[in-house]
C-alpha cells in the first residue's frame, strides 16, 4: 500500500507521529511519503527544532511544496497545480491529510472524487462542544466531511462528533493528539536532577502551579487567576506560573495587580517544546481552565513529566487522559469556587499529588506516536479493504 501524508507544516509535534507511521508502515510492507505544503508554521513563533533536524537528515520521499510560505497562507493556483501534480506522481492508495477545511484538504477531497483513485482520511481534534454550533454551518460541514473516507481523531468524544458529521465509527480511530512521551519524560527527569539551576534559569518560585495557554478569552486565564487567589495557596508560598502570550496579556497583568498577586504570579512568554519539560518537572500540577479546548497537548506533556492536572470538562483531554479522582480533577468551566477548592486540595495534600502523579504517568503511556501510527494504518487498511488497486492507474 502507498500512503501519502499531506500536512500544512510538519511542526515539532507532527515529526514523531510521522516517523512512527513510517516505521510501522514499513514493518507491514507499506510505503509512506510526506508532502509538507508550507515550510513555515503560522501558529508557532519559536523555531521548530525537531522539524529542522528531520529535514537536515534528508529523509527519503519527503518534500516541501512551498518553501517561502506558511501554513496560515492560502495555497494559490500555482500551489494547487503543484499539489495535484505531486499526488498524480506518487499514485497513492491512501492520502492522510490534516483537517477537512484547509485549502489543500479541499483540493485533495475534490481530486479524490473526480478520480476515485485513492481513499482520503482527515486528521482532526474537533468535538461537539467546541463553542456554540450553528445548525446551518453544521449541515454544510457534514456535506464536506461525509465526502472523506475516514477520520483519525483525538479521542472518543471527537469520534462521536465525526460520526455526527457522516463518518461511521468503523471508519474512525483515535490517537491524533499524541506526543513523544519518552522525549518529554527524559527531559523532565534531567530537570529534576538540578532543580535549583532550572529555577534560576526561568525565574521560577520554589513551588508553583502551572498554566500553559494562549492569552485569549476562551482560555479563561482570568478565571484561573481568580480561583488561585480564592484557593489561598499563595499564602502557602505556592506561586502561579503562566506560560503564553496573546492579546489579553496587558489586561491579565492589570487583573493580577488589582488582586495584589503581582509577587505571586510569574508570566513567561511562550517557550519552545524542548524547554517545557523543565517547567512541568518542577510544577506541583498544571491547570487548564478553558471555556473549551479541542484537546490540550500541554496536559499530555505534563503527564509525561509526572505532573497531575486540573482541567475543565470541555477540554478534549477530560475523560480521555485526565480521569477525575485518578490522575487529576475535572471541573466545570467558569466554576471559580470548585476550581479554587480543587487547587487548594491538590496544593495542600502531598500524598494526593503523588498518587495523581503516578496515575498520570501510567495513563499517558497509551497516548504515544505508536497509537497514532497503528490507528492511521488501521484506517488505511479498513478504507481500502474493498477497493481495487488504484496505484496501477494514473490519477488524472
From TrEMBL:
<dbReference type="InterPro" id="IPR001296">
    <property type="entry name" value="Glyco_trans_1"/>
</dbReference>
<dbReference type="Pfam" id="PF00534">
    <property type="entry name" value="Glycos_transf_1"/>
</dbReference>
<dbReference type="InterPro" id="IPR050194">
    <property type="entry name" value="Glycosyltransferase_grp1"/>
</dbReference>
<feature type="domain" description="Glycosyl transferase family 1">
    <location>
        <begin position="206"/>
        <end position="361"/>
    </location>
</feature>
<protein>
    <submittedName>
        <fullName>Glycosyltransferase involved in cell wall bisynthesis</fullName>
    </submittedName>
</protein>
<dbReference type="GO" id="GO:0016758">
    <property type="term" value="F:hexosyltransferase activity"/>
</dbReference>
<keyword id="KW-0808">Transferase</keyword>
Amino acid at each position: 500500500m502507498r500512503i501519502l501524508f499531506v500536512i500544512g507544516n510538519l511542526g515539532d509535534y507532527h515529526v514523531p507521529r510521522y516517523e512512527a507511521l513510517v516505521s510501522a508502515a514499513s514493518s507491514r510492507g507499506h510505503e509512506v511519503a510526506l508532502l509538507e505544503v508550507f515550510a513555515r508554521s503560522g501558529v508557532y513563533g519559536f523555531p521548530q527544532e525537531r522539524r529542522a533536524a528531520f529535514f537536515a537528515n534528508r529523509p527519503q520521499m519527503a518534500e516541501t511544496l512551498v518553501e517561502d510560505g506558511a501554513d496560515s497562507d492560502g495555497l494559490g493556483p500555482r500551489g494547487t497545480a503543484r499539489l495535484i501534480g505531486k499526488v498524480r506522481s506518487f499514485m497513492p492508495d491512501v492520502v492522510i491529510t490534516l483537517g477537512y477545511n484547509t485549502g489543500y484538504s479541499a483540493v485533495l477531497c475534490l481530486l479524490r472524487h473526480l478520480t476515485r483513485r485513492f481513499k482520503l482520511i482527515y486528521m482532526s481534534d474537533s468535538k461537539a462542544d467546541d463553542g456554540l454550533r450553528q445548525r446551518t454551518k453544521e449541515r454544510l460541514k457534514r456535506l464536506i466531511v461525509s465526502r472523506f473516507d475516514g477520520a483519525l481523531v483525538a479521542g472518543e468524544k471527537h469520534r462521536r462528533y465525526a460520526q455526527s458529521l457522516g463518518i461511521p465509527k468503523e471508519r474512525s480511530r483515535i490517537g491524533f493528539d499524541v506526543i513523544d512521551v519518552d522525549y518529554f519524560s527524559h527531559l523532565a527527569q534531567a530537570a529534576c536532577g538540578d532543580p535549583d539551576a532550572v529555577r534560576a534559569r526561568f525565574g521560577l518560585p520554589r513551588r508553583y502551579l502551572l498554566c500553559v495557554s494562549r492569552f485569549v478569552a476562551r482560555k479563561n486565564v482570568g478565571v484561573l487567576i481568580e480561583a488561585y487567589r480564592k484557593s489561598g495557596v499563595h499564602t502557602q508560598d505556592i506561586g502561579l506560573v503562566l506560560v503564553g502570550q496573546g492579546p489579553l496579556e496587558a489586561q491579565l497583568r492589570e487583573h493580577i495587580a488589582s488582586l495584589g498577586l503581582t509577587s505571586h504570579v510569574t508570566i513567561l512568554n511562550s517557550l519552545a517544546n524542548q524547554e517545557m519539560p523543565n517547567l512541568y518537572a518542577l510544577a506541583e500540577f498544571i491547570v487548564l481552565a478553558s471555556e473549551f479546548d479541542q484537546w490540550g497537548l500541554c496536559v499530555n506533556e505534563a503527564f509525561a513529566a509526572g505532573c497531575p492536572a486540573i482541567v475543565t470538562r470541555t477540554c478534549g483531554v477530560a475523560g480521555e487522559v485526565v480521569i477525575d479522582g485518578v490522575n487529576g480533577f475535572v471541573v466545570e468551566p467558569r466554576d471559580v469556587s470548585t476550581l479554587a477548592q480543587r487547587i487548594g486540595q491538590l496544593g495542600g495534600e502531598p500524598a494526593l499529588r503523588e498518587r495523581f502523579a503516578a496515575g498520570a504517568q501510567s495513563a499517558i503511556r497509551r497516548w504515544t506516536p505508536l497509537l497514532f501510527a497503528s490507528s492511521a494504518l488501521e484506517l488505511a487498511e479498513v478504507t481500502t479493504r474493498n477497493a481495487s488497486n488504484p496505484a496501477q492507474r494514473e490519477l488524472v
